[in-house]
Amino acid sequence: MQMNRDFVQQATGQNRPDDRWALMGMLLIVAYAGLAIAGWHWSWLIILQEIELYKQFTGLALVLLFVAQWRLMVVRVRATPGRPGRMLPSHRNWGVLAPLLLFFHASDFGHAYVQLMCLVFLVLLSLGFLHRPIYRLKQSWLTTSWLVTHVALAAMLMLLVGYHTFNSFYYE
User: Fold this and answer.
1) 3-state secondary structure of 107
2) Which end of the chain is more exposed for a tag (fewer CB within 10 A), N or C?
3) What's 123's DSSP letter?
């Protein structure tokens, strides 16, 4: 029961890190989407993104970020006392950097399954940034729905990333 209380305290904002991080994350998502939709690019970044080694390193950085983010779920499933509550702020803070990493890896939405993967990622991040406002509503069904959707999108994203990784190396 202590683990749940610690996690709820972190989730609802008691002992919380600055809410400006979530706002910054949402602004980065809107900026990324706006730039991708408008087709605006930095020429130096496009040149970098055409280098195979650059794509591999930025892709690896994104995969490592995903693996680090999944640690929270693993700790929650293992029911490690107090750890989920302590890990939640870093989970949120790393999530803020995710749109920036995505931008450096790919400055547009791509096509076909890559576009789906990008959109799933952006929706997943947006849901993550809505965590506190949803928790503050104190509606059990809404919190549960949010959590199930967040985890389902994360699982879907991992499948898409695996497929993308296979295609990237196989068809190179």
Assistant:
1) coil
2) N
3) H
Q: What is the DSSP string of 38-101?
A: HT---HHHHHHHTSHHHHHHHHHHHHHHHHHHHHHHHHHHHT-TTHHHHHHHHHHHHHHHHHHH
How many other C-beta atoms are found inside a 10 Å radius of the C-beta of residue 108? 19
Tokens of 158: 């991992």
Instruction: Give the model confidence (pLDDT) of 18-64 as tens digits.
Output: 578 888 999 999 999 999 999 888 899 999 999 999 999 999 999 99
SS3 127: helix
Please give the Cα distance from 37 to 161 (Å, whole number).
22
How far apart CA 20 and CA 43 sit, in angstroms, is 30
Contacts of 23 (CB under 8 A, 6+ apart): none
The rounded radius of gyration (Å) of the Cα atoms in the chain is 17
